[in-house]
User: What shape does this take?
Amino acid sequence: MAVHESDICIIGGGITSAMLALKLSELRPRASIVVVEAGRSIFDAQNRGRYRERAIHYGEHPWHDDYIEDQQGKGTISMTMAVGGLALHWGGACNRFSEEDLRLKSMYGLAVDWPIEWKELERYYCEAERRLHVAGEPSPYPGDGRSEPYPQPPIPLSYNLQILKQWAETSGLKFNSLPMARNMTPFDGRGACCVYDTCGEVCPSGARYSPDFTFRQLVQPKKITLHDRTLVRRLTLDAAKPAVVSAQGFRQDGPSGDDGAIEYRAKTFVIASGYCWSSHLLLLSSNSRFPNGLANGSGLVGRHMNGHKFIGATATIDAETFPGQNMTHSLISREYFRCRTDRPFVRHDTRVWESSSGREPRLRSPEGRLLLGDEVMTDWRSRTRGSAVRLRAYYDIHPSTDSRLTLDAANRNRHGDPMPKIEHQLDAASQAREGATAEHIRGVFNTLAKASNGRVGNTNTGDYLDHPGGGCRMGTDPATSVCDSFGRTHDHENLFIVGAPTTPTGGCTNGTLTFVALTLRSAEEIAGAHGR
Amino acid sequence: MRRRSLLQWMASLAAVLPLERVRLFAQPRELTPEAIRFMHELAPTVLPASIGSARIRQTVEQFVAWTRGYQEGVALAHGYGHPRLQKSGATPVPLYLAQLAALESEARAKGASWSALDLDTRRALLDSSIAKTNVRNLPQRPSGQHVVVDLMATYFRSSEANDDCYRALIGRETCRTISVTLVRPGPKG
Assistant: This one.
């Protein structure tokens, strides 16, 4: 069996792994760092324009072979397993949570408090924004104060969004340009935004940050070692003490004759495998001393799986816009990030996009007559008066202890390992207020629409939790949490977990920036364990 | 004895051959010149006359190029939220050829070439042909279900058609500097 030794072994190759590897390589340039990722590297940035064309014209997935067919869980939000992870094709939204997210218990008697002070997390938000080169503007709400300006000015509002901002603010809510990890000018080896408008799929210029760029920058000068196409299947412990001594893996590209088995030995192990595969690996690593899995003295590994729910709608308004200017950029209002403690609890963000919903060319008239040639165009034009507006609110819900990731014995990979199964469950308080929350959000949408004689059309409620996290929640008490605020597991001093799995609750806006900020904070603790 | 061995060998070969793949391999993968000619004849009926004959011709050529660029068995976008692995199916060319041949033959049965038929008759023939499929609306891009609907989607789902509709230079999904998007789009045509 091949053996690879390093100071720090990072398991997983997504955005938190990239940020962790980058910061550790700066803080501890002499430390040997290996990143092990089950999926492949997709470093052919030069082909992304072509892949995008194929995606538009043929519906093809622009990230070829970014998944492993037999390494799929149930209840996951994406099949992607590749170097870069889900952030290969994220939209780039970089919203911060707010202080309320960290103080749910003490302010509202809900869920739990996070074991970290807002002021401290805020410092790491600033660092995350610098590293991701976020374009943004300060929130108009005083509660959203910042200690540093954004590294880039905001993405300028398209003509359409200028019109929509004017409309939306008539309601009394304040909106600003969504902060995004999108280069306005070339930066760090990546191009400037050309408004390809496919940020959530593939960005040919590289303007929208994706972790593959960071990994390439780290691998080429040998600041880290990257082993892709290598699945870590188990962690093993020292015989005498509860320290992790190795990660047992299988590499798909081993030398011929090799059985593919590989062992990683390191002083410190960091699981940076996201909301699903982090808990999964800990549960898979059970042994006679830890029959419920590693780091699971509390019995909470794979529990409190979180995220946020969402309600979307399309409104029609009188103002005229021209769909297609910059459909992936949007406005955000943080009006309802804060909730008075003497009012029913409801927290959500409010987002506004240009839209062409209901204004697409169609094949038949409402009476069913086949439309041909100019008839299609005439019919289409007749429906373009005014505008459609896309609205969405991510709202705060909290997981019950039974919101779980379990090992699914009925679904196994080629090695016979059970795959994960995620079943989200809301706690009783979240369930009890669901109706009132939905009513409140629909009320906000209606108030927005009325500002321009508009009306809200289709409303839809998401049937999955977005920006999922949890499974290894942080806390100060080993009986009620898996790791401390740095991600160090309570049960194994040389085992860390970073990013999404450590979050106790999922907030009410995009989570990626928070996952990165927490990881950058963990990086300092991990570096501290390795001296200078 | 030899003959029996040969028969046995052929039988065992038939059992192991991926016959479906062989059948698909035998299918035409390119539109024939006759089919392309007929599409050029048919296109002015289904594409807007207002875009002019040159762009109508270009749209047919673009669609023919689309059929040539089609790749089978390629992973399609697997989605977000409820991901699912899907792959592109067999080339739609054989279906397209059959649909075009049927339309042309039905036109002849009416005693005229396609372009000599009145619009109501052409509409009825297209309606009947499309009704044989599951197509209910213009797909986001050619979907391989009906040749005429896919030809229409080639134009109507394009950035150019969006500009034509709004009579404005929006340039949806085209590479452009962000400053272009900050002002009301200029008029088109």
User: Anything to note?
Assistant: The two ends of chain A are 32 Å apart (CA to CA). The CA atoms of residues 397 and 430 of chain A lie 5 Å apart. Chain A has eleven helices and 16 strands. Chain A touches chain B through 56 residues (CB under 8 Å).
